[in-house]
Specification:
- This protein folds into 2 domains: 5-114 and 183-299, Rossmann fold (3-Layer(aba) Sandwich); 121-179, Orthogonal Bundle (Histone, subunit A), CATH 1.10.20.140.
- It is built from 13 helices and 6 strands.
- The protein has helices spanning 17-28, 53-58, 75-89, 103-111, 121-134, 136-146, 148-153, 159-172, 200-217, 219-225, 241-247, 253-275, 289-299; strands at 5-10, 32-34, 61-62, 95-99, 190-196, 282-284.
- It has a 6-stranded parallel β-sheet, with helices on both faces.
- The longest helix is centred in the last third of the chain and has 23 residues, at 253-275.
- The radius of gyration is 20 Å and the shape is globular.
- The relative contact order is 0.17.
């Protein structure tokens, strides 16, 4: 299938990936696979910026809101599902558009991801309890003892990364780092990477405006409906955590909205840091549709 192309449209949150992906898919007469780690959940719509009815009616989307927040889901599962969808779509299309801001999901589909085993839910629960009582530093110290290689390589300010490394190490009895071979898997299709970005001030203004639009669309009610499930990993995300704190009475609503904007901007910076490590991404502005299509046509056979 080397004459088949997976066209990835990536970039930070709020930059306009969905709109561009729809226009590109329409121009190519193809379909879209979502590579967003939160848009997979059917209970989360407003806070994850799931494409609206207009976009969904114009182009068929896959791997969108097909899981429950109570389901386990990760990059390995996404890789397997996305490859199955691609195989089906390539029977009728020479190119398929994949879009999203979840760098690990995109990496998994392009180059594969290590087969890391699942963790024991009881171990995860105990680690979460310890983190709340003892703080993150205690878990950092244990990780350093159990897996010095992981301790030296992962972001020690990211609780999710530390928890995952400890979960796997304690569940399997093997260091988490031993599962990370980082060997690229062979793909039968070609890959084309397109990145979208704008000036930082413009991006931040877009993010702020989108948060305000989400609140106007009913994000608070959506979060309130998920309150009973707040401990799930699916809800450990920007827009939900802050409003949980508001519903707990810890901060004001204005304070929560301010934090959502701030944390969304920080997330956008982390996304750009991730994608900027890939020198195969061709970068464009969201208003350069014609240039993007010229770039695609130079690589994809008609």
């Amino acid at each position: 299938m080397k004459n088949k192309y997976a066209i990835f449209i990536v970039g930070p949150t709020g930059v306009g990936k969905t709109a561009m992906a729809v226009r590109v898919a329409e121009a190519l007469g193809t379909e879209i696979i979502s590579a967003d780690s939160r848009q997979v959940y059917k209970e989360l719509k407003i806070g994850t910026a799931v494409p609206g009815k207009e976009y969904l009616s114009r182009v068929r989307h896959h791997l969108l809101q097909h899981r429950s927040i109570q389901d386990d889901y990760n990059a390995s599962m996404f890789e397997a599902e996305a490859l199955q969808v691609l195989e089906k779509l390539f029977k009728d299309h020479d190119a398929v558009v994949i879009t999203g801001g979840s760098g690990l999901y995109i990496q998994a589909l392009i180059a594969g991801i290590d087969d890391v085993p699942g963790a024991d839910p009881d171990i995860r629960g105990e680690l979460l309890r310890r983190m709340e009582v003892e703080g993150l530093e205690s878990l950092r110290f244990e990780l350093k003892k159990l897996d010095p290689a992981a301790w030296a390589s992962i972001d020690l300010k990211n609780p999710k990364r530390i928890l995952k490394a400890l979960e796997i190490s304690l569940t399997t009895g093997r260091p988490y780092s031993s599962f990370l071979t980082r060997k690229s898997k062979h793909r039968d299709f070609s890959v084309l990477r397109i990145g979208l970005n704008v000036d930082r001030a413009v991006l931040y203004a877009r993010i702020d405006r989108r948060v305000e639009d989400m609140m106007a669309a009913g994000l608070l009610d959506e979060v309130r409906g998920c309150l009973a499930f707040r401990g799930l990993n699916a809800l450990n995300t920007v827009g939900y955590k802050e409003l949980f704190d508001y519903l707990d009475g810890r901060i004001s609503l204005d304070g929560a909205i301010h934090l959502i904007k701030r944390n969304s901007r920080r997330y956008a910076r982390r996304q750009l840091t991730w994608f900027n490590q890939d020198d195969k991404i061709a970068w464009f502005r969201p208003d350069q549709f014609d240039d993007i299509m010229d770039h695609i046509r130079q690589h994809v056979r008609k």
